[in-house]
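Sample 1 of the test manifest.
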Amino acid sequence: MSTNKRKVLVCLSGGIDSSLAALFLKKQGYEVHGVTFRTWDYVTESCWEKQKGCCSIESIVEAKQFAEKIGITHQVLDLREHFKKTVINEFVNEYLAGRTPNPCVRCNAETKWGEVMSLADELGCNYVSTGHYAQVRGENDRFILSQGMDETKDQSYFLWMLTQENLARTIFPLGKWKKADIKKMAAERGLVKLAEKRESQEICFIPKNDYRDFLKEQVPGLDSKIGEGNFISMEGKVLGQHKGYPYYTIGQRKGLGIALGEPRFVVDIRTRTNEIVLGSYNDLEKKSLKIKNINLIKYPEIKDGMQTDVKIRFRSKPVKATIFTENESYIIVTHQPLYAVTPGQSAVFYEGHDIVGGGIIV
RNA sequence: UGUCUGAUGGUGUAAUGGUAGCACAACAGAUUUUGGUUCUGUUUGUCCAGGUUCGAAUCCUGGUCAGACAA
């Protein structure tokens, strides 16, 4: 590693958060080098209009301009192939398997930290940094990831896959700040455009916010391979036709195109028979789930029967639960009902504000 | 072929003479670094032709269509 202990590689997206993160690091006396990823090419123009978040060409230009403005070096890293091989492929395959992926979790682990760490090595940077609202600290020989101070903007959920090696070198300059303050500071520094820019949102590589169209583009002949199938009730009665199981996700209500007099939700996806089971909201209830691909952060291991709080989606309150270990997977039994537990999504364990670990729901 | 019943927005229904309502669906916006959820809002309807009435989804006549029963 470099002899320069104050050199940091910061991921700039062109948005307000990462820009301010870079600014903070610079003010704190770090030697800062910015990097912006090129992950995906947009073909449609709609994304430009929407000023989409982290990866558009326009944002790359903005990131570069910002770097110049605050006087840091900057480069663009072309990760298109890597991104396609990891994030996009997994995204498509998961849907084809009847599961619902979370590409952001994958992208953070594989693309952002995965690739940035090696670039940091090349450049002699001992730290890497992003504009995430999360915190990391060293304690008991572990590097512990915890929620951002601004609970409404906390993004730790998306970072549960980060390894100890990743966290050891990570700085989150915004972890102790509130989004409102960041916006205010940006405005005060004359960064009006940034302050007014829309939040990055939706899947960054999907234009028009329609993952179904994206799947069609990525999987030629998808509709002829899978095609229409039956909506069925909990009792097995045929209720209508659907467009093919990859277009649905557990808990989904909108877009079913079927009027049954009361709200119906996707309760189960049966890939073998291409059947989608519909039920009431209460039919989505579960009190246990199984996870795999476990990554532990706060503790090196988890004891059978450990108590924790678990989150099964980004915007949901943590629920008290007990973890039962079982070889490579865990069984999580919650003390309150969960709704719409969705295979492919992340279950993240919290202890207070700290992330204990997480896994992918089976 | 006869008799009876029914026909309301995309779907299912309410309103028995007095501004056509509800649920679901659809669409749009809000929320949101995943999908989904949630919230707010919007669009769309009285089978057709006559008649009675100040006024008809509602009553009358004829037609069309559907279901049931009869043969």
